[in-house]
Amino acid sequence: MLSEQQARNLIDKVISFSRLPECQVDVYWTEDVFIRFANNGITTSGYRITQEVSIRSATGDKREGSSVVTELTDEALKLGAEQAEQLAAISRPNPEYMPALGPQKYLPLRNFDSFTGSARGDVMIPHVKAVIESARQNQLTAAGFIQRSANAAAVGNKAGLFGYHTYTESSLTNTMRTAGGTSSGWASQTSVSLKDVNGETAARISVEKCLRGAGTRKKLDPGKYTVILEPAGVSDLIGYLGWSFSARAAEQGQSFLSKQGGGTHLGEKMFPESITLRSDPLNARLGASPWGPSLLPNQPIAWIEKGVVKNLYYDRFWAGKAGKQPTPAPSDLVLEGQDNTLEDLIRSTEKGLLITRLWYIRTLQPQTLQLTGLTRDGVFLVENGKVTDPVTNYRWNESPVRVLQNTKKLTQPVRAQGAEAGASIVPAMVVADFNLASVSDAV
Amino acid sequence: MKITPVPFSLSRRSFLLAGAAASSRLAADKLFGAPGDTDSKPSPELEKLGAVALAEAKKHGATYADIRINRYRNQYCGYRLSPQRGSNKTDEVPFVTDQQSFGFGVRVIANGQWGFAASPLVMPEEIARITREAAAVAKANSALLASPVQLAPTKSYIDRWTSTFEKDPFAVSVDEKLELTHHAAFIVKKAPKVFSAFCFLWFRSEDKYFASSEGSSIQQYIVQGVPMLEATAVDVQKNISRTRRHQIEPASAGWETVAKANLLENAPRISAEVLEHLAAPPVKPGKKDLVLLPSHLWLTIHESLGHSTELDRALGYEANYAGTSFLTTDKMGKYQVGSQRVNVFGDRTNDRGLATVKYDDDGVRTTKFPIVEKGLFKHYQTIRDQAHLIGETESRGCCYADSWSSVPFQRMPNVWLESGAREVTPDDLISGVDDGILIDGEGSFSIDQQRYNFQFGGDAFWEIKAGKKRGMISRVAYQSKTTDFWQACDGIAGPGYWQQFGALNDGKGEPGQSNAVSHGCSPARFRQINVLLTD
């Protein structure tokens, strides 16, 4: 692990090579261990160290240049600093340049777990074994991935700013398939601590989904359905929503928060009372960073509070132009939930579809935030409060804005991660009128 | 090579003179030599480092080992021109960055199992340590071995190879690059109704060294260029925005990619077309004939036929992430995926292809092979450790890792569609359409995990009525199923219209990796495809 002192030394060294008025150095260091498995056996796995020093320099007249090096010898760092400065010297003034920040007070975050940071194969293989044994016992085929990383990030600049932060991440995902490829079930666990990962539990969920899906799958006509989205799917949709809170995009007619004819929806009640979405970098369950892209201290902020659009994301430049205080960037998202379980949601649904997760999501229109994507690894009919038959997968064309507007009921939130966005803390939810556009034959 | 220390200077002129030589002090430069080196053999320094891993692996019981010592360079520069807050004035924002990544990865087979480890400290002691780590990983994992790894045989090679380029893009001054991108973006933004303009140049290089315990020692250098020019228009009254991009083929090539793009000549067209797109009426949805230009069709080829014919997907190795494939192994050689006109090749040898290389990351000499022949699915993309699983005796050279720190695995070669008869023109395709759409460029794209159901947008759409191209329309997406779509292909333009578009960011694998790949094709026509009106 790159220690705080080592990080500080690296940054000081780069700055000592700098001759321009401004120089910012970002250092990233990661050690990760991963095991990939498929067809009931380990396929590829590895142990690796990666490191990167990113150097950004600026002249007194706002010309910027940057370089990235991975060699950390004095010579390489000197060269990196020189290269950034030479590029700055050759570039043109940036009218949106913001002067360097001085020392900041960063919040201490507790998202480094030393057990996770030192775990190797002996800790991880038993989880893989549990998944594979569970597959074999049920005549299924397992594929999956378990990983952990120990990360250090540091930042410093010529104006005296310095930050250092360590965090760990871990996850186990697994997919169970029937021998003939007629059904697929998936489960995921993601946490800053590998202690929260449990192969037996993950396998139990994916086996159950796979076996439940093994019957004849119903092919319902495309159309609008009440759906119960499990947290992995909600996490992806919320990720897309979070990326759309830029004040600049909203004010300039390029987001769902832009108002027809000009202006933004800031302060409007766009969503039901039950919807509160915030960034929570203090949440120890997320791999948050004490600073954001602007290097201002990260802090909790509500984007939607009880259905009202509470804040837009102002970076330092745009905030200066708008006469506002800059805000943290949307990250480490938490969507608040209600005191229900997934079973409660199923029990309260007369007719609907239970959706395990979403796949291959892309934006169609930024102003409506209409997305397209597919369902994957388990869609089930819910009738009169019970899960009944398996159903085919679907392509859907839908907007997370409408999804939140049509949300009827939520569970308690959990940390989840889907296929597209990073981890967030989100509930499962019942959503009315979700637009399933066409059947997908994929399993 | 010659090492030339350069005195520091801030003047633009001295930077131009010093820029190329300044990087010569890096350890990586000392190892890899200059791009223009004409040696036919790998650098002896690299071979010495490689030998450390191979010897250490043998000592620790490995039955196979390889090491890749790689250095990557990415240089991005360009301009964004966009309006100031609450004003019609334009901010012209330049950016320039030059990024390097250098390190090594060691793969071993021990106890019949793969092990991998990687580090950025390219020195003998660390190579030995990391090789021991890789062996330890393999031995630990052999407890859960489904079946021992079997490698299809390959010849061993001692060679040095460089991708084709006329002019080293890194030797062109950043000053010239900024000047050009600013000028192109400025022309696009000149029309007052254009909201913003964005132009950038991305140059990427890979220095690759591969040594294996089977006697191969291969040094390769690849240069790629991606120019981009885009306009955005916004109608605040209607609350809509549209973009339009100058369609440029990214290529394994040098500065000539930029020259060929004619950015300045195309800037006024992009500017006019984005405004036409903004005002264009919405499509009337329904079944329509589509004429797809190479700038668009490449992505449909990639998603539908490229990914479905990856052997690792068909075998279930990607089941937990990218997915499997509707083309199961029992369908090889027997299954009609498209019409008789559809001939598709996997090819890592073709000129300027982004996946083109002489040897893959298994050390296998790359090839060209048929994937689809007259509509029939013929062959998968394969690598050494999977070929035997479908009864094949050699790899088709499709192994790639996107970094020194990534595990090599099966990645897509250039997958290209053979052009139609010489005399067929795009106008011929259009003249045969009564009610259809001509589509240029990529838009949104999405396909399921077995590659059946897809939906594609585009960058620009023109209505075709009674055999004639009419005005632009908007809000178009089409949905189809891979086999239905390729069965509906009834016309492909001739070789004179064949172009090779692609991307450098094709994702697959866990941990995720990016692959660069091209998909050449001529304009082609598809009958009665389901067209949607997007919100």
SSE map:
The complex is a heterodimer of chains A (443) and B (535).
Chain A lengths: L3 H14 L4 E17 L2 E18 L5 E6 L4 H17 L23 H5 L2 H17 L2 E18 L4 E17 L5 E8 L7 H14 L10 E7 L1 H12 L4 H5 L25 E3 L21 E5 L2 E2 L6 H7 L10 E3 L6 H6 L3 E15 L4 E14 L2 E6 L1 E6 L1 H6 L1 E4 L3 E3 L7 E3 L2 E12 L3
Parallel strand pairs in A: 7-12
Antiparallel strand pairs in A: 1-2, 1-4, 2-3, 4-5, 5-6, 7-19, 8-9, 8-11, 9-10, 12-13, 13-14, 13-15, 15-19, 16-19, 17-18
Helix pairs in contact in A: 1-2, 4-5
Chain B lengths: L11 H11 L4 H6 L11 H16 L4 E20 L6 E21 L2 E7 L4 H18 L16 E5 L11 H17 L3 E19 L4 E19 L4 E6 L10 H6 L1 H17 L6 E7 L1 H13 L4 H4 L29 E4 L20 E6 L2 E2 L21 E2 L8 E2 L3 E4 L8 H6 L3 E6 L4 E3 L5 E4 L3 E6 L2 E6 L2 E6 H6 L1 E4 L6 E10 L4 E9 L2 E10 L2
Parallel strand pairs in B: 4-6, 8-15
Antiparallel strand pairs in B: 1-2, 1-5, 2-3, 5-6, 6-7, 8-24, 9-10, 9-14, 10-11, 12-13, 15-18, 16-17, 17-20, 18-19, 20-24, 21-24, 22-23
Helix pairs in contact in B: 3-4, 5-7
Describe the 3D structure.
The complex is a heterodimer of chains A (443) and B (535). Chain A is globular. The mean pLDDT of chain A is 97. Chain A has two domains: 4-212, 2-Layer Sandwich (PmbA/TldD fold), CATH 3.30.2290; 216-443, no CATH class. The longest helix of chain A is centred in the N-terminal third of the chain and has 17 residues, at 74-90. In chain A, strand 2 (41-58) and strand 3 (64-69) form a beta hairpin. Chain A has 443 residues and is α+β, with helices and mostly antiparallel strands. Chain A has helices at residues 4-17, 74-90, 114-118, 121-137, 199-212, 231-242, 247-251, 316-322, 342-347, 400-405; strands at residues 22-38, 41-58, 64-69, 140-157, 162-178, 184-191, 223-229, 277-279, 301-305, 308-309, 333-335, 351-365, 370-383, 386-391, 393-398, 407-410, 414-416, 424-426, 429-440. Chain B has 535 residues and is of the alpha+beta class. Chain B has two domains: 12-279, PmbA/TldD fold (2-Layer Sandwich); 286-533, no CATH class. Helices cover 22% and strands 35% of the residues of chain B. Chain B is built from eleven helices and 24 strands. Chain B is globular and about 70 Å long. At the A-B interface, strand 1, strand 2, strand 3, helix 2 and helix 4 of A face helix 1, strand 2, strand 3, helix 4 and helix 5 of B.
